[in-house]
Design brief:
heterotrimer, A alpha/beta, B alpha+beta, C mainly alpha, B: Cytochrome-c3 Hydrogenase, chain B, three-stranded antiparallel beta sheet, 15% strand, C: mainly alpha
């Protein structure tokens, strides 16, 4: 729990943060909107008293009401992990700038977030599906993903006659979409 | 070479004769998608003069699991490389969202099955952070002990596999002697040889027992000579060294830009090790060095992993000497319902930084469990390192980055 | 249904076999005896008149027949020796110490489905293994196995050898090109490049030996090295030997130069699309090649069938078993029994738990071994060709063991390192060897 880091972040980014800087155990968390991502990331990466030059993780999250992209960064200036949550991406058309201009290794992580959630990373030179087949039509880790439907629409569908008889019309209605409070 | 026009034939499906399948027989060209979906795809799938695609398909004796690599070659020289993943994708993150916190741990083992404990460890740490659980010191020491043993086993596998990819048949069998002993030991401790399912939220699943301690003591007396014998097998072999030196060279800036971690990063000279940079468990109390090398080529990565084994032996020694008494499991309610929150935990696995980001929404199932796997990140770099080298080096470079497809594909 | 038909249905399978084969055998025997009786003299005269051709036909048949058991033996040796180097057991079950495994492999390869993949050029695809196999086996014709025991003593024997060995390149290219497969193409091209590059140092390193021996006939070269082991060309041409050894390893596609079949990169190289007996041809050809290269190293540099030292004292064996008269019959009746008892006795006495019948079996087996050894010793001392064959095979299999040893120990080189080594190092070295030898011969005289 690095209080000094919290003060520095509030001083530097106070105007673009969309929530308080939260700290728990050894993690510090800031929330921003997708439009400010480029500026914030560049500042975190380049500024000499921040120097968050190591991108540890890039994850997509579906919080039920909106999409999020969560970045974890590490710097030698602080013992904490820094978590940057780019929140409130609309569920239908989630778009966010890519960080591949800073870390080329984020390319595949963004591909994975696109594949699993449908979040489009603008600026990623290679935004195509990474795990699912290229003509797959839905995004598996979203909370509103149902397997029976999409398997029938996938290119592997229809080869076994069961997939034609047990089609979406006959499937049971969908379960409740989970929402996370304050996720 | 015959034409690349696909020859297809039609036959009835075995399941339902009314369904007619059209199969392509003959050469399967990695057909460029039209229109190309991304810039990179357009760049990759345009053939220059004299170039051709070679598809090292998912079934191949030497890709580290089911990995498909489309290689663009000009004669024997690789000009570009595109790994295609997803053949081992099992939907682990989705499975974890629909299961308990305890059940989720079982799903995480088969990710990097070679070093399964390192897949459970960050998840367990993240859950403990969510629930504010303190792990007893004895459990922490047992975790470190078993982890370091598994690190040695994983590096032994790496060494053998690297040599096998280059054509040497003997080192893999010798290194498997070492790995087998360690895995039998851990089998005596945890009950399983490969997918251990040993760490629990709040501790470990069972104390050290007599069989484990006797096997461990037995092995420790021979460990150093065995390791030196394995190292000496290939260290000074001219053919081996010539093939690995100056191959797949990575410099510091590129490695940091590609988000590499673990031995791949330390081989370029950056002394970043999660155990020292962001200490967890009882590593602050243990005394060990972080070996680094400067060259950043395959040989450096190979030798560095062998150096790390020596450090692991030191850590195991200290663990055994400093093992405290006490319980191995914290007292927890049976039904775990952490309050809503988020937690991130990372450990230093034999391949790099293995991390988990857990989001809880107050129920007894994790809302999101994100798995960050180092092999996934490192496989990106293959496309960067390969151009200019020969096909035979594809395997060497991939082996030296040590990916495990279970982790790459999740 | 006739009587015969009903009787046939009632027979069991062995019965059916017997009643089919026995009449056939009877008829064949009678026919052969009739032919021999009627035409016997004519046949003998014909053969005597064309003795060289007859000898040639017999030699070629023997060579072709012997190549398969040789390949079997070398395959087994490779599996077992590499396994022991890997600290594991290797073939263990099929026969004593797994020695019959090669035979089983041969049968398996015959029983596999033989298909031609779509898109291949069928004639070329089918002929490729034949060309490769023949290129290997035809070279066995000129190798002297023992004094007087060679296929044909061509006076351009060595040239014939290299010419025929070069045909394997054609076969490999045929295989690589005709399989409708990029891996095969790459493998075929790699192997063609490799073999062609290493043929030059191979032939040049041998020219030194040719200068010293003055002839290209392998038999003469071996005869030139008669005497003690100091006469062997290995001591007069050490650099030539080294270059030849390395080039022979590359010619035979053995580790460390086995990238044509590097199964960690291009699956099986040129042989990816082959299965069944076609693959068996490639497989056997490789091992026969190993034998041939070893045989050549031995013949050229290590004295072939000559012994390292002459037998120190003259041996004069004169056996006259007929002189014993009736005693011979008694000896033949009594000796096995007495021998078994004598050899069994120590085992039965020393181990109290051993039942008598077990001891007797051990004794009998040991007696047979002793008799076999005795006969071999007699043959060794009596007939020259046994001695020669013994030494030749011993030395050759020593080198085969070395090839197998290298496979178990060394990793593979890369194609560019391989080609660079051949052209930049071996070729100049062999030229140097040639010049030095020629110069020495001119300056010092023979």
């Amino acid at each position: 729990m690095d209080r000094a880091l919290r003060r520095r972040l509030e001083a530097r980014f106070g105007d673009v943060l969309s929530g308080p800087v939260r700290q728990r155990h050894d993690e510090t968390e800031i929330r921003i909107g997708p439009a400010d991502l480029t500026v914030v990331m560049r500042a975190l990466h380049d500024e000499p008293d921040l120097r968050f030059r190591f991108l540890a993780d890039l994850a997509g999250v579906d919080s039920g009401s909106a999409m999020q992209v969560v970045y974890h960064l590490w710097s030698e200036t602080t013992p904490d992990w820094l978590r940057v949550i780019a929140d409130n991406l609309p569920r239908d058309d989630a778009r966010i700038p890519s960080v591949t201009f800073l870390w080329k290794g984020a390319e595949w992580m963004e591909r994975e977030a696109y594949d699993m959630f449908g979040i489009t990373f603008e600026g990623n030179r290679d935004l195509r599906r990474i795990y699912m087949p290229p003509d797959y039509t839905s995004f598996p880790l979203r909370k509103d993903f149902f397997l029976a439907d999409d398997a029938a629409r996938s290119p592997g569908a229809g080869v076994r006659h069961m997939e034609r008889t047990h089609s979406p019309r006959n499937a049971t209605p969908a379960a409740v979409v989970r929402q996370a409070k304050g996720a | 070479m015959a034409t690349s026009a696909p020859i297809s034939r039609r036959r009835a499906s075995a399941d339902d004769p009314r369904v007619i399948l059209e199969e392509q027989v003959g050469v399967f060209e990695p057909v460029p998608p039209f229109p190309p979906r991304t810039e990179r795809e357009a760049e990759f799938y345009t053939l220059g003069d004299g170039e051709m695609f070679l598809n090292m398909g998912p079934q191949h004796p030497s890709t580290h699991g089911v990995l498909r690599v489309v290689v663009k070659i000009n004669g024997e020289v690789v000009t570009d490389l595109d790994p295609v993943l997803g053949y081992l994708h099992r939907g682990v993150e989705k499975l974890c969202e629909n299961s308990d916190y305890h059940q989720a741990i079982c799903y995480l083992d088969p990710l990097e099955y070679v070093s399964a404990l390192f897949c459970e460890w960050p998840a367990v740490m993240a859950f403990e952070k969510l629930m504010d659980v303190t792990v007893p010191r004895r459990a922490e020491y047992i975790r470190v002990l078993s982890g370091e043993l598994l690190r040695i086993a994983s590096h032994a596998l790496f060494m053998g596999w690297m040599a096998l990819d280059l054509g040497g048949l003997t080192p893999i069998l010798w290194s498997f002697i070492e790995r087998d002993e360690i895995v039998e030991m851990l089998g005596a401790l945890t009950g399983a040889r490969m997918l251990f399912n040993y760490y629990r939220i709040g501790g470990v699943n069972g104390d050290l027992n007599h069989e484990f301690m006797s096997r461990l003591g037995d092995w420790m007396t021979r460990a150093t000579e065995q390791h030196d014998a394995n190292v000496g097998l290939l260290n000074e072999n001219e053919i081996f060294v010539r093939r690995m030196r100056d191959l797949g060279r990575v410099d510091r800036e590129t490695a940091l830009r590609m988000c590499m971690t673990g031995p791949n990063l330390r081989a370029t000279g950056v002394p970043f090790d999660v155990r020292r940079s962001h200490p967890y468990s009882v590593y602050p109390e243990l005394d060990f060095d972080i070996p680094t090398r400067d060259e950043g080529d395959c040989l450096a990565r190979y030798l560095l992993r062998l150096d790390e084994v020596k450090q692991s032996l030191r850590i195991i020694d200290q663990c055994l000497n400093q093992m405290p008494d006490g319980p191995v499991m914290a007292k927890l309610p049976r039904l775990l319902r952490p309050r809503p929150g988020r937690a991130y935990a990372a450990v230093e696995s034999p391949r790099g930084q293995y991390a988990n980001y857990a989001i809880s929404d107050g129920t007894d199932q994790p809302f999101r469990l994100r798995i960050h796997d180092p092999s996934f990140i490192h496989l990106q770099s293959v496309g960067l390192l390969m151009p200019g080298h020969l096909i035979a080096d594809t395997m060497a470079v991939m082996a030296s980055l040590d990916p495990i497809m279970g982790g790459v594909d999740k | 249904m006739t009587v015969v038909g009903r009787a046939w249905n009632r027979l069991s399978l062995p019965g059916k076999l017997f009643f089919t084969l026995a009449p056939l055998l009877l008829v064949t025997t009678i026919a052969v005896i009739a032919i021999l009786v009627i035409f016997g003299q004519l046949i003998v005269d014909f053969l005597a008149a064309n003795l060289p051709i007859v000898r040639f036909v017999v030699a070629v048949t023997a060579v072709l027949l012997m190549s398969v058991p040789t390949a079997f033996l070398i395959i087994y040796m490779e599996m077992k020796v590499i396994a022991l180097m890997n600290l594991r057991l290797g073939p263990d079950r099929v026969g004593p110490y797994g020695s019959l495994l090669s035979v089983v492999h041969g049968l398996k390869v015959l029983m596999k489905e033989d298909f031609t993949p779509t898109g291949v050029d069928s004639i070329v695809f089918t002929l490729a293994p034949v060309v490769v196999y023949l290129a290997s086996v035809m070279s066995l014709l000129v190798i002297p196995f023992a004094p007087g025991l060679f296929g044909q003593d061509l006076n351009v024997g060595l040239l014939y050898f290299f010419a025929v060995g070069g045909l394997s390149v054609v076969g490999l290219l045929m295989a690589g090109w005709s399989s409708f497969n990029k891996y095969s193409l790459l493998g075929g091209l790699r192997s063609a490049a490799q073999i062609i590059s290493y043929e030059i140092p191979l032939t040049l390193s041998v020219v030194g030996v040719l200068i010293l021996a003055g002839t290209m006939s392998l038999n003469q070269i071996v005869l030139d090295q008669r005497g003690s082991f100091l006469d062997w060309f290995a001591f007069k041409q050490p650099l030539g030997l080294l270059i030849f050894f390395i080039a022979a390893t590359a010619e035979a596609n053995r580790t460390p130069f086995d990238l044509t079949e590097a199964d960690s990169e291009i699956v099986a190289g040129f042989a990816t699309e082959y299965s069944g007996m076609r693959f068996g041809f490639f497989f056997f050809a490789e091992y026969v090649n190993v034998f041939i290269m070893s045989a050549l190293i031995v013949s050229l540099f290590f004295g072939g069938w000559t012994a390292p030292f002459d037998w120190p004292w003259p041996v004069h064996i004169e056996l006259n078993p007929g002189g014993l008269g009736i005693g011979l019959l008694i000896l033949l009746a009594v000796a096995p029994v007495v021998g078994t008892l004598v050899l069994a006795a120590p085992f039965w006495v020393a181990r109290s738990s051993m039942p008598a019948w077990q001891a007797l079996i051990i004794g009998f087996v040991l007696l047979n071994l002793l008799i076999g050894l005795g006969l071999f010793a007699l043959a060794f001392l009596g007939w020259e060709w046994v001695v020669g064959l013994f030494w030749f095979l011993g030395k050759t299999y020593g080198f085969v063991f070395t090839f197998v040893w290298m496979r178990g120990t060394l990793p593979r080189v890369r194609i560019d390192q391989l080609m660079g080594f051949a052209w930049k190092w071996l070729l100049p070295a062999s030229l140097l060897n040639l010049f030095v030898t020629a110069g020495a011969v001119v300056v010092l005289g023979r």
